[in-house]
Amino acid sequence: MPVLRRFLADRNGRLGLFGLLLVLGMALSAGWLFPGDPLAVTGPAQLPPFQDPAHWLGTDRLGRDVLAQLFHGARVSLLVGAAAAAVAVGIGLLIGTAAGALGGWADEALMRLTEAFQTVPSFVLALALILVLGPSLGHVVLAIGLGAWPSPARVVRAEIMALSRRDFAEAYRALGMGWLEIAFARLLPNALAPVLVLATVITASAILIESALSFLGLGDPNRVSWGSMIADGRAVLRSAWYLSAIPGLAIVLAVLSVSLLGEALTAALDPRRIRR
């Protein structure tokens, strides 16, 4: 496949794929390598990294294994990132396709709704919704997804409006197809390429927002999160800086990997943007 070949030929794509597979491997192997509750006390408090073979990355200020929390935290970050992107893209596809296909007053109404959501920063909207709904993993996913759908909606609307002027769209109308079938079954599949790239951006943003919410104590209290690990290490930052640095590096790795994937996908889907 030409797109796959162009993607694999991109150095950023290979680096992003490697980083994402590393984080994914951590998430999938967490239950096998570290069974049980990652928040259970398993050793002395604030054990430095590489001092005890049973705790490779040491323990936090309560005596909980840092490496176990890091692996289980990867599950939360990837789950929230992927699920929030799916929610945002799903809503964006529905509203963007309807707006682009219907036009007229329906397009105006849907775009005003989109603009209303865009006036509120994603993090502020997520923060407000979590304060109202309560901190849980499902609510975090919903809150982030509801703040991120306007961008996919606008992209899809523009693509659908452009495609609806093509000759093949006129041919479908001449055959008696309704707007619903034309828009969602015929036009939408041809408008998914830019949305796929945008989904990687939303995923990276969702990982950051979830970490920020957990840092503020608004994440799921029953789940280990990289953000909550940073918050726990903040109290002993001078004596045990690694407690915040290790999950911070994990967040950087995950976000950077997804961002590099999105950049490589953009170049692969548009050969004119391949770096020379």
Structure commentary:
With 276 residues, the chain is mainly alpha-helical. It has twelve helices and no strands. The mean pLDDT is 90.
List the helices and strands and how they pair.
Elements: H1 2-9, H2 11-33, H3 66-102, H4 104-118, H5 122-133, H6 137-148, H7 150-163, H8 167-174, H9 179-187, H10 192-215, H11 226-234, H12 242-269
Keywords:
single chain; mainly alpha; elongated
H and E order: HHHHHHHHHHHH
Total number of beta strands:
0
Total count of helical runs of at least 4 residues: 12
Task: Tell me the span between the first and last alpha carbons.
Answer: 20 Å
Categorize the overall geometry.
elongated
Task: Name the beta content range.
Answer: under 5%
Biggest sheet statistics? none
Unreliable spans are none
Mean pLDDT: 90
Q: What is the percent of helical residues?
A: over 70%
> What class do helices, strands and sheet pairing give?
mainly alpha
Mind telling me the C-alpha Rg? 22 Å
Quick recap:
The protein is mostly helical and 276 residues long.
